[in-house]
């Protein structure tokens, strides 16, 4: 099973990247994660879709197309989703070229130093994914609040409950993908 993994932060020391790295390192043996880097995705411009997608969005869409599901671990900015995430979803869920999010199982989680743990940002990402036709897993919800207290400088998740939560979340997502494939 292939899962496309997207971190919604470009920051080198991103706590969301650390959570995603942890999930990839602890992956179930049946899962192969493909990391999609949003750093080089140009700003969405529908004019640029004419005659096919530009190189970087085309490569990202190919990775998404080949994946059985997409996992997004993202921060929340100003109670919304980061622009880089919306930008990537606008390319991927194109109304002109192929919409690679249609019927694609998706799972969203996020980490924040604040208490609410990206609840509002996740809501926006899920709404956009649903608008693109993605099959968004609704439960479990994973809101990782006060995240820096749970992850050390070596990217190790020190909070046992969080480790368990992430493992259970991965299992739920794998089951969700398998359900959609039958
Ligand atoms: C934030 N942050 C933030 N956190 C939150 O829980 N709710 C919010 O609405 C916001 N808003 C916000 C706006 C902007 C522009 C920035 C830069 C930051 C704080 C944010 O959660 C924190 O910086 C995280 O560490 C960002 O995630 P990464 O980059 O560590 O993955």
TrEMBL record:
Superkingdom to which the source organism belongs: Bacteria
Molecular-function GO terms, alphabetical: FMN binding; oxidoreductase activity
InterPro entries: Flavoprotein-like_sf, FMN_Rdtase-like_dom, NAD(P)H-dep_reductase
Annotated Gene Ontology cellular component terms: cytosol
Domain named NADPH-dependent FMN reductase-like: residues: 1-147
Family classification: Belongs to the azoreductase type 2 family.
Descriptive protein name: Chromate reductase
């Amino acid at each position: 099973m292939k899962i496309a993994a997207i971190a919604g932060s470009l920051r080198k020391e991103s706590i969301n990247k650390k959570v995603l790295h942890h999930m990839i390192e602890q992956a179930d043996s049946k899962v192969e994660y493909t990391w999609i880097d949003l750093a080089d995705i140009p700003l969405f411009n529908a004019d640029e879709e004419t005659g096919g997608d530009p190189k970087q969005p085309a490569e990202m869409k190919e990775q998404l197309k080949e994946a059985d599901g997409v996992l997004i671990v993202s921060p929340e900015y100003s109670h919304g989703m980061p622009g880089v995430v919306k930008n990537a979803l606008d390319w991927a869920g194109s109304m002109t070229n192929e919409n690679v999010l249609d019927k694609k199982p998706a799972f969203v989680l996020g980490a924040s130093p604040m208490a609410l743990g990206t609840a509002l940002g996740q809501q926006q990402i899920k709404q956009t994914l649903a608008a693109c036709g993605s099959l968004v897993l609704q439960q479990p919800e994973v809101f990782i609040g006060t995240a820096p207290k749970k992850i050390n400088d070596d990217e190790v998740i020190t909070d046992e409950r969080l480790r368990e939560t992430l493992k259970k979340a991965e299992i739920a997502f794998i089951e969700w993908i398998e359900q959609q494939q039958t």
